[in-house]
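INFO batch 0412 | record 1 of 1 | parsing
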Amino acid sequence: MSYDYFRKRCEIVSPSAGVKFHPHMARHTYATKLLRQDVSVSYVARMLGHEDLSSTQIYLHPSQEEAIEEVRKVAFF
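INFO prediction complete | emitting tokens
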């Protein structure tokens, strides 16, 4: 599936689903899910076509729920 085809499908489906959705969101979700399942950063970087690991590391940020849980662990709440 080409990027252009996928982008056009997103433009058609997104409004009817009532959500904003574009190809980069799919890419971001894919990378984040792989990393949360302990797939190596170097493998995810290759899958995304990144030459520099720092480009892939942006997907390593915690979700809001994960951040709150980590704070609760150390703050004794």
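INFO post-check: The chain has one domain: 3-75.
INFO record closed
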